[in-house]
Amino acid sequence: MSESSPVGKIKVGIVGASGYGGVQLVRLLTQHPEVELVYLGGDSSAGQPYTDIYPHLADSVNLTVEAVDLGEIAQRCQAVFLSLPNGLAYTMAPTLLERGCRVLDLSADYRFENLNTYQSWYGGDRTDQTTAVEAVYGLPELFRDRIRNARLVGCPGCYPTASLLGIAPLLKQGLAQPETLIIDAKSGTSGGGRVAKTGMLLAEASNSLGAYGVARHRHTPEIEQICTHLASQEVTVQFTPHLIPMVRGILATIYATLRDPGLVRDDLLTIYSAFYRSSPWVTVLPSGTYPQTKWAWGTNRCYIGLETDARTGRVVVMSAIDNLMKGQASQAVQCFNLMMGLEEGLGLPTTTFYP
Ligand SMILES: NC(=O)C1=CN([C@@H]2O[C@H](COP(=O)(O)OP(=O)(O)OC[C@H]3O[C@@H](n4cnc5c(N)ncnc54)[C@H](OP(=O)(O)O)[C@@H]3O)[C@@H](O)[C@H]2O)C=CC1
Ligand SMILES: CC(=O)N[C@@H](CCC(=O)OP(=O)(O)O)C(=O)O
Fold first, then answer.
1. pLDDT the model gives residue 305
2. Which residues contact 275 (CB under 8 A, 6 or more apart)?
3. Which atom of ligand 2 sits closest to the CA of residue 108?
4. How high is the pLDDT of residue 38?
5. What residues have CB less than 8 Å from 117, skipping those under 6 apart?
6. Which parts of the sequence belong to the Semialdehyde dehydrogenase NAD-binding domain (predicted)?
7. Dist. CA 192 → ligand 2 center (Å)
8. Contact present, 64 and 101 (Cβ < 8 Å)
């Protein structure tokens, strides 16, 4: 591993720099006051100057994408972000850790405590059990202290981030019946990544709305794993994702039956505000205000609003994030800040462009 640069900045690399996660990371890390971006890696883009892929970054970055060489990466970088399709990070992270790098994986490879769960949803042949057990789930609002001490962080999926931040106070404080949880979530098309897919063509996705992965989306076990941890009992959830014709953003609408049907909206808002008192990136909205995904665009924020329904005894929680930011890249930088002993919000955009 290389020493700190002369100016004392942390040398950082990104593998998967040409993708949507990669380009968010480039934007954030080139503006981060404690980071020197020294390495960009990829596969089909290897050999290309980065600004041939993203000309709008011509004034910010002067690097060429390189083929992945783990020894070379470890020599040049103190921390590495892996922004790759599922199933690749686990072939790279053990070597990078062994050679002294901190690793932040944006894929699903290091999100699961139990590798059997990973393999039954994602396939693959995992032999990195020792590495996987040391990984920390990168949701700072729930696991801040563990992330501070981690060498390897498995950053959450976009739907799990929106869902879990909306659900956490309900389960942690025993306010809702866990078995009644239903999550109805909508995502913009950038959630599918930059790789060409027919369903993401303008002609297919625009002016249309539909569910997919019903009762079998791979974010279900990820959400259930953390819900089980929060509730201290086995939790299953009904999770239905939808593709919505917008570029960025996720809105998760969460339904659950309250244990005490006498609880009203303002009681719950008080509890939510207290729960997130030390989490400045979660904004609990005032009574009667429900979040819009547009408010979170380009920021690391999660906006939460809620309502109770005395007729059904349910609470309805609405949670909005930018899938590429709090749902992916900026959350990874938030974790990086914690791992490196920096102020948690360093270099993270706080306010959206609007409208
Ligand atoms: N998009 C989203 O909203 C979210 C995505 N994620 C996760 O983050 C990860 C990245 O997603 P996203 O940015 O959307 O994906 P993209 O499809 O946009 O980008 C994938 C990147 O992986 C690189 N890559 C693919 N195969 C290899 C390989 N064998 N070796 C080196 N590089 C390779 C590609 O490089 P090249 O172009 O050079 O081939 C490309 O840069 C995924 O695991 C995704 O599930 C997590 C949360 C939210
Ligand atoms: C709209 C859309 O296609 N979204 C993606 C979510 C991508 C993501 O965050 O998934 P991982 O990080 O767990 O791979 C999907 O549903 O597969």
1. 98
2. 168, 169, 172, 173
3. 13
4. 98
5. 221, 225
6. 11-150
7. 6
8. no
- Ligand located closest to 221 CA: 2
Mean pLDDT of 296-319: 98
**Distance of CA 83 from the midpoint of ligand 1 (Å):** 5
Q: What is the pLDDT of residues 56-110, one digit of tens each?
A: 999 999 999 999 999 999 999 999 999 999 999 999 999 999 999 999 999 999 9
Query: Which ligand is located closest to the Cα atom of residue 15?
Result: 1
ipTM here: 0.97
CATH 3.40.50.720 residue ranges for the chain? 10-155+328-340
**Ligand 2 centroid from CA 158, angstroms:** 7
Q: Ligand 1 in contact with 88 (CB < 6 A)?
A: yes
Q: Boundaries of CATH 3.30.360.10 in the chain? A: 158-321
What single-letter DSSP state applies at residue 4? P
Q: Quick one: which atom of ligand 2 is closest to the CA of 323?
A: 9
Question: What pLDDT was estimated at residue 142?
Answer: 98
Active site residues: 158
Output the pTM of the full model: 0.97
Residue with tokens 């959350």: 331
Helix segments in the chain, DSSP class H: 20-30, 50-53, 70-76, 89-98, 115-122, 129-134, 140-148, 158-172, 202-205, 219-231, 265-275, 329-339
CA–centroid distance, residue 86 to ligand 1 (Å): 8
Nearest CA to ligand 1 atom 12: 193
Chain mean pLDDT for the chain? 96
| pLDDT for residue 1 is more than 50 | no
- Class of domain 158-321 (CATH, top level): alpha beta
